[in-house]
Amino acid sequence: MGTLEIITALTKTFIIILPGFVLKKMGILTREYTQGMSSLITCITYPCLVISAMQMEFSMRVLDNCKYVVLIFMCVIVIAMLLSKLITRILKLPASRSGMLAFMLVFGNTGFIGLPVLNGLFGSEAVFYGALCDASYDLFMFTVGISLIQSSAAEESKRRMSETLKGLINPCFFGVIIGLILYISGTTLPDIIGGPVKSIGSVTSPLAMIIVGSHLADIRFRELFTNKYSYLVCLLKLIVAPAIALVLVRLIIGTGSLLSTVIVIQAAMPVAMCSVIFSEQYKADVSFATKGVLLTTLMCIFTIPLFAVLLQNI
Questions:
Q1: Which of 104, 83, 68, 81 is nearest to 262 (CA)?
Q2: Average pLDDT, the chain
Q3: Global pTM value
Q4: Contacts of 310 (CB under 8 A, 6+ apart)
């Protein structure tokens, strides 16, 4: 895929943000509606998108590539967490920002934005690899990730093991497991089931982008662009994190393949929306999390094509 095609595909995907922004400003799209849409994506459309994407002819090459996806993404997560600790010490960030910064550097929106973008750019095989990246994120996000948020909370909340397991056992994770089982067993869903699953999954992208647009409408742009820490988050999440992934990819599997492209693009995704949800739940700095999510979501429109083009030319 050429540079122009990449930029065009991403532009088409992100234009869907506009209806959400406009409808929220008009008061038509309320918070209750967006919460319902988020639940719909999480519980139904996202798992269907993953299952549908994994309905491919079995290939040992693709299955063998899975281990590289998990290995490299785990390395990206660990390195990013260590880097965030170093940066918070150097900059002497307040306690309320330290753990939050680490979370936002490590965890990206690989599901709601990542999979739709990969689907639009490269098709179902890319979604297959992207879903594995997202599953790797989930494993860390609902364990180490929440601990990072808690460390930034004014009143640290203790969490039971049952709550951690509840976070891991969710419809999105089950979607990946079901898709993998069907793929490895060579099972193809009959059209009477596979057709509806594919149709439901196809609405994930527009719904997710409309939700992103509604969140953008909730914040004052002047306030968004005047916070220096938000720019730090952008630099780390949109440039440093994918750069780390790119270096690891070149060292382990080399560039030029769909697999390497997917790993780097997923690492370049904006800050995960869960940072806001977890901040509210554990009484951390919700405003800082919201600004990080929104600014990186805006800026990734420019940085994702940058890395996509870079991958095409190295």
A1: 68
A2: 79
A3: 0.73
A4: 246
Number of Cβ within a 10 Å radius of residue 295: 24
pLDDT by residue (tens digit) across 97-111? 777 888 888 888 887
Question: Exposure pattern of 224-240 as b/e (b: 16+ CB <10 Å)?
Answer: beeeebbebbbebbbeb
Residue 46 · residue 215 · CB < 8 Å: no
Residue type, 143: T
Residue 251, classified by CB atoms within 10 Å of its CB into exposed (0-12), middle (13-18) or buried (19+), is exposed
| Coil, strand or helix at 49 | helix
**CA pair distance 173, 167, nearest whole angstrom:** 10
Q: How far apart are CA 193 and CA 198, in angstroms?
A: 9
Where b means 16+ CB within 10 Å and e means fewer, 143-154 reads: ebbbebbbbbbe
pLDDT at 200: 93
List pLDDT tens digits, range 146-179. 777 777 665 444 555 455 555 556 677 788 788 8
Please give the Cα distance from 291 to 296 (Å, whole number): 8
DSSP of 53-112, one letter per residue?
HT-S---HHHHHHHHHHHHHHHHHHHHHHHHHHHHHHHHT--HHHHHHHHHHHH-B-III
